[in-house]
Amino acid sequence: GAVVSQHPSRVICKSGTSVKIECRSLDFQATTMFWYRQFPKQSLMLMATSNEGSKATYEQGVEKDKFLINHASLTLSTLTVTSAHPEDSSFYICSARYLGRSYNEQFFGPGTRLTVL
Amino acid sequence: AQRVTQPEKLLSVFKGAPVELKCNYSYSGSPELFWYVQYSRQRLQLLLRHISRESIKGFTADLNKGETSFHLKKPFAQEEDSAMYYCALKLYGGATNKLIFGTGTLLAVQP
What we know:
The complex is a heterodimer of chains A (117) and B (111). With 117 residues, chain A is an all-beta fold.
């Protein structure tokens, strides 16, 4: 249980276009999802926290107009990279929080590799 | 400022040797710390959390508040332990809590 999926796993787009990445919790409801960015051989950098039915909370330095996050349901959050540029090329990872009876834990998706040409 | 530091980018050991992956943190509140592991071509997954005081796959980690450390240890490394290991700190506050990660240590266990 507690599986998180992402789609697509890999996307290549032209500079100036927008790309949408989906994150789904497959067998549990997630009121909170997180979006991370990972550069090659570097750590995960938290971009934003997405709460179902409300606006996302962005980390300092992350442009909210550039990275649009929508958390319309308890099982789906989307990240849209608008007007993508080559410097947006990265590995984007989502995570969903599972609220168990005695603990809560973040489960991670497999990531989406974005390449902007 | 809240921070997680993993000083080693790469740790290479021989099979059967002891392993210690270092993690230090900076946090003004009561820390809640985790170790996550990422095997080759797989997603990030939780290895252990300090609250549980558990041993997973032979790994243990003890929170030392005096030294602000949460080092990951295993007495005898196995080749299948080769992976990227991330130390993470849970931050509380605002509308929700969140995890911040260290830069990771690549553990390479040689045969």
